[in-house]
Amino acid sequence: MLIDTHAHVNFNAFKDDADEVIRRSLASDTLMILVGAEAKTSKRALEYANKYEKGVYAAVGLHPMHTHEQAAQGEGYDFTTREEEFSYDVYEKLAQFKKVVAIGEIGLDYYHIDVKADAAAVKQKQKEIFLRQLELAKNLKLPVIIHCRQAHDDMLKILKDFRKEHKEAMPKDKSWGVMHCFSGDEELAWQYFSLGLDISFTGLITFSAQWDDLIRRLPNDKFMIETDCPYMTPEPFRGQRNEPMLVKKVAERIAEIKNLSFERIAELSTLNARKLFNI
Ligand code: NI
Fold first, then answer.
1. How many Å lie between the centroid of ligand 1 and the Cα of residue 105?
2. In sequence order, what are the beta bridge partners of 60?
3. What is the pLDDT of residues 149-160, one digit of tens each?
């Protein structure tokens, strides 16, 4: 069994065949967490999760790219994001449902800030909304799924301060969140580990060797796998739409790099996901 810990089958890229994609994945013994990026896609993640008795879970949250309207371009995507006014109540209500296993994705994204925008104001607003969602997660005792792009200094500072401030309310022997689609270096990975967070890998590692050394030395209990579909399609399917079933390619690549069996990586990544998300 595998768990795709970060899938967006709840996004428009799947509007015509979401159920088919989900069924295909479940039939290949791959469970998934559908991750929201705004209220609309968070609700849809929950709606899909509720449709299936087992194997489909949801995360709800406001992504930093939706705190302002902005252009988003990259491999396999090109769109303008909607701006959403963050409402604690909306996400608190959504997060009460049993199938919601995390608050996410939330975080900071300085990479996509418009050149014409007031960068300082955008960053400030992202930080405030991120912090409120960290608080929501703490209050509801849910783990967090964190997105961070070109903002690691601010991210580390926020997480350190937050952890210090809420020491008694934070899990002690257990991770409390994951840095999703981790793309930093080894030193950064260990900084996140020391803050009680795990990291998770996408198809990115199937076409770049940049993380091989980190993966080789990765502690067995600190990593997970994800697709981030429809984006980040692994080799040999690059250029096509990604989907949860393909998380297998990420596990295969980690097994290859660590010189362990595929079954062992499946077992470890599944166990780590089950522990973090209580599933
Ligand atoms: Ni994502």
1. 7
2. 103
3. 999 999 999 999
Q: How far is the CA of 72 from the centre of ligand 1 (A)?
A: 13
Compute, in angstroms, the gap from residue 47 CA to the centroid of ligand 1: 18
- CA-closest candidate to residue 265, choices 211, 234, 225, 207: 225
Q: How far, in Å, are 83, 213, 235, 252, 260 from residue 257 at the CA level?
A: 40, 8, 15, 9, 8
CA gap 98, 91 in Å, rounded: 14
Residues near 178 by Cβ (< 8 Å), separated by ≥ 6? 5, 143, 144, 145, 146, 197, 198, 199, 200, 224, 276
- Residue 145's closest CA among 153, 154, 136? 136
Q: Which two structure tokens, joined as six digits, stand for 193?
A: 């580990």
CA atoms within 13 A on the CB side of 180: 30
pLDDT band per the 50, 70, 90 thresholds, residue 56 = very high
Contacts of 169 (CB under 8 A, 6+ apart): 138
**What is the C-alpha separation between 251 and 267, in angstroms, rounded?**
10
String of DSSP letters for 18-45: HHHHHHHHHHTTEEEEEE-SSHHHHHHH
Its pTM stands at 0.96
Q: How far apart are CA 165 and CA 183, in angstroms?
A: 28
Helix, coil or strand: residue 71: strand
Ligand 1 centroid to residue 119 C-alpha, Å: 22
Half-sphere exposure (CA, 13 Å, Cβ side) for 217? 9
**What is the rounded CA–CA span in Å between residue 279 and residue 277?**
6
DSSP string, 107-137: EEE-TT--TTS-HHHHHHHHHHHHHHHHHHH
Cα–Cα distance for residue pair 19/17, rounded to 1 Å: 6
pLDDT in tens, 93-127: 999 999 999 999 999 999 988 888 889 999 999 99
